[in-house]
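Table S4 entry, TTL11 polyglutamylase.
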Amino acid sequence: QFPFGRRLPCDIYWHGVSFHDNDIFSGQVNKFPGMTEMVRKITLSRAVRTMQDLFPLEYNFYPRSWILPEEFPLFVDEVRMMKDSDPSWKPTFIVKPDGGCQGDGIYLIKDPSDIRLTGSIQSRPAVVQEYICKPLLVDKLKFDIRLYVLLKSLEPLEIYIAKDGLSRFCTEPYQEPTLKNLHQVFMHLTNYSLNIHSGNFIHSDNVNTGSKRTFSSILCRLSSRGADVKKLWSDIISLVIKTIIALTPELKVYYQSDIPAGKPGPTCFQILGFDILLMKNLKPMLLEVNANPSMRIEHEQELSPGVFENVPSPVDEEVKVAVIRDTLRLVDPQKKKRKDVQYNYVLWYRCQTLEEASEAKEEAREAGDGGERGGSRSPEAGLPSLCLKQVFPKYARQFSYLRLVDRVAALFIRFLGVKGTTKLGPTGFRTFIRNCKLSNSNFSMASVDILYIDITRRWNSMGIDHKESGMCLQAFVEAFFCLAQKKYKSLPLHEQVASLIDFCEYHLAALDEKRLVCGRG
Ligand code: ADP
């Protein structure tokens, strides 16, 4: 707890819900600005859709989704078209209210006309998604996986995944959806908060049984059935990295707005909860990302009617304690200090006489390295090995080609101008076009203004954020894709976008060079 009246800054701030303090000027905060907004159902679906437009095959781990109310007509049309082209297709859809959690307000439908339009759709935006009808079953039950992921840093990107997670089970045997069973939540929804109310829920002290188990126990079972568990892990890692790559562009916009570069501010890290469903063929599908995953290691038990007591939950404890412990080890400010001392030692070694260098070496040794090497003097020597496994930058090379929107966001941020904003004004957009030399006889400045007004108006009418006026990042990305398609006809979209980014970066680098020379002059 941060005692009221405390003046001294802390080295780690652990907020309960979201990043909300604007008067922290140093240290590390356990939440990123904007993360809660970014993982809402609609925003996440939009961010993934942008990536699906660029890389459809790489982003096929997220069910096809439509945003309500604005995409309702599109949803109806697309479903009709797909049914026409394949009359044997008998889909089911799941409707999820935006900002909902714990299964709140979720229902299944067989036909677009079953959406509960009466009043609620306008007042409560939602995502409607293709329902995965053939999930992997264990003991005839549907289950999902909660995996903990540490986003340790945004720039440079650093991601860790916990080696173990939780598997949360339904409490009624699964049947593929029919009109008769659509409403049976204990059969179709894996939420702990719902299934706990079923008479069939089993609290177990054993991590291998019950309605909540460790993910590793499932993997053991799958492996004994001959499943390729290594491939499954590698698919999960890839899903996590790709999802975070979809979120980073907008997170960077929030970040520079709350913690402007060059001003004193904290650095951020965040533990995220990834909800993943395994399909029958073991393909992992992303259901959602939680910015504030529950870290409870107890559950309520009804001792006698109406009398409840909190009792320890060994399954939660096994997974969650390790996640928090390792997060603190990884962001440990003492460790950073020790690293700095070591770095200084290297510098000294390069510049000083041998005698001075050996003094510095001694200093570094005294500080202890505390890293994964875990030498005998390390304060971590007695702790279990890390459960959080670094996956980025470890696998950065495999995924760097996907980070196109990140580069578009860097252009956007450059032209935001006034610090602290998240939206681009018309002048900023014009300057972007001019500095990147995108206007020509076929694309006049008047057309630039029309493009800006059209796209900005449409995005603002979706009513996401009325606080500021101007063009949000998503609108800028749409405008950028339009420009890329215009300029590089006939290439696939991701190549058009990559070419336009190269073109813009080239002209901006030339401009910076010119300004530098002029400045020197
Ligand atoms: P909430 O935030 O309310 O928990 P989720 O998106 O996690 O919303 O959905 C709740 C549950 O519904 C999931 O845990 C999962 O069991 C089920 N579910 C969600 N989306 C799908 C889907 N596309 N296909 C099959 N089941 C799904």
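The chain has a mean pLDDT of 87.
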